[in-house]
Hydroxymethylpyrimidine/phosphomethylpyrimidine kinase (Companilactobacillus huachuanensis), 266 residues
Amino acid sequence: MNKFIQVLTIAGSDSDGSAGAQADLKTFMACGVYGMSVLTAAVAGNSYGIHDNVNMPISFIKNEIKDIKDDFKVSAFKTGMLSDSEIITTVANEIKDKPFGKFILDPVISTKHGAMLLEPDAYQTLIDELFPLADLITPNYYEAQKLSGLKLESKDEIITAAKMLRKLGPKNIMIKGQHNDNNISTVEDYVLLEDGTSFWISEPYVETTHVNGTGDTLSSCIVAEIAKGQTMDQAIRTAKTFTYEAIKNEIDVGHKFGPVNHLIKI
């Protein structure tokens, strides 16, 4: 029993299917693993934007996690949108004994354009409660700016920021490069691994409005690949390629800001 590779996302539901738990589950399937979800919140939205949202009751989140623990063998998992301090603390308490294997934390603090998504108290709770438990964090450019207090205007600053983030507790750091600047030709990410080794990884910049769920897709692919037995280094490289191909091979869904394409094969 429970021999097929199983993974988990603890995240919000996005009604248009482009991001959140829906993007995670699509990525898991594309990567050949069985995905499960614990929903922390739900948003009503479409390609034009988000128009309503609601948090799941704390008791419900606890029961979701309990039911996964009681039945399944999860090899790796991730967190996405955790809306407030109470939800963050609840999740932290439920995963402290590492029941679900390696933990990839997608710190949903701000959008890829720099808009803050967390209130100040929730932001600090995320750092205090979840960062020390994470095997990898994957902040975007603006999240890394916020976390480090640096402007990240050079590679040296990004390297310094990664070292600063390591001191907050995560074992491995992946700082995703800026990708909303039309003057750039490549998107460069910096990775600092637990053993001290580091590397830059890049793909060509793609001019498109279909980039919803890129962070979810990247972190979910890392989860899937780790569950399949890849090293952290290998999983990150595979996920970078998968996400790039999902952006490059655009699908025509929605009228404005659309999803990436999880149907691609690498």
Observations:
- The mean pLDDT is 94.
- The CA atoms of residues 4 and 205 lie 36 Å apart.
